[in-house]
Amino acid sequence: MNSANEMNVEFDSVAKNESFARVIVASFITSTNPTLEEVSDIKTAVSEAVTNAIIHGYEKGAGKIWIRTVVEDRSVYIEVRDKGIGIADVKQAMEPLFTTKPEEERSGMGFSFMEAFMDRLEVESAAGEGTVVKMWKEIGAPAPHYE
Question: Model confidence over 111-122: pLDDT tens digits?
Fold first, then answer.
């Protein structure tokens, strides 16, 4: 019987830390023996969540980002948290192609990518209080069978 293993990391909200975040989470989940595709999916989802915190949460200003990762057996839970400006309308923000920064050529696909690459996604946010992105993935889950 395996017990949960947890990692908590705090880092500055600067663009160069996005790659650090992806690598540290990917390294931490190796005990689940993920496929290269599963690692890539998780790295992409983490990248999108951290980038959103940097670009939108702190509007490229100073702040901290926290990542909590929990591995239990083959289940991975990842939480990316910021204390930035928050999201006024989470439902709208999660719509594909919606962006608050079109002048910066933001695609508005961050949450869509997170949903596509993870098994489950939840976003909690309040204006002025920050955002928490919660993601789950089961490693080794059978691929969907289509007929």
Answer: 888 888 999 999
Catalytic pick from 18, 22, 38, 52? Answer: 52
Q: Is residue 13 part of a domain?
A: yes
Is 52 a known active-site residue? yes
Residue 52 lies in a domain: yes
The H-assigned helical ranges of the chain are 17-28, 36-52, 90-93, 110-117
Q: Within a domain: residue 79?
A: yes
Parent domain of 29:
5-138
Q: Is residue 6 annotated as a catalytic residue, yes or no?
A: no
From 106, 115, 124, 138, the catalytic residue? 106
Annotated active-site residue in 18, 38, 48, 79? 48
> Edge-to-edge strands of the sheet including 64-72?
5-12, 64-72, 75-82, 130-138, 120-126
In a domain, 145, yes or no: no
2 is catalytic: no
Give me the helix-helix angle, 17-28 and 36-52, nearest 10°: 140
- pTM of the prediction? 0.85
Give 84-112 pLDDT, tens digit per residue: 999 887 676 666 555 555 555 555 567 88
Q: In CATH, what number is assigned to the domain containing residue 9?
A: 3.30.565.10
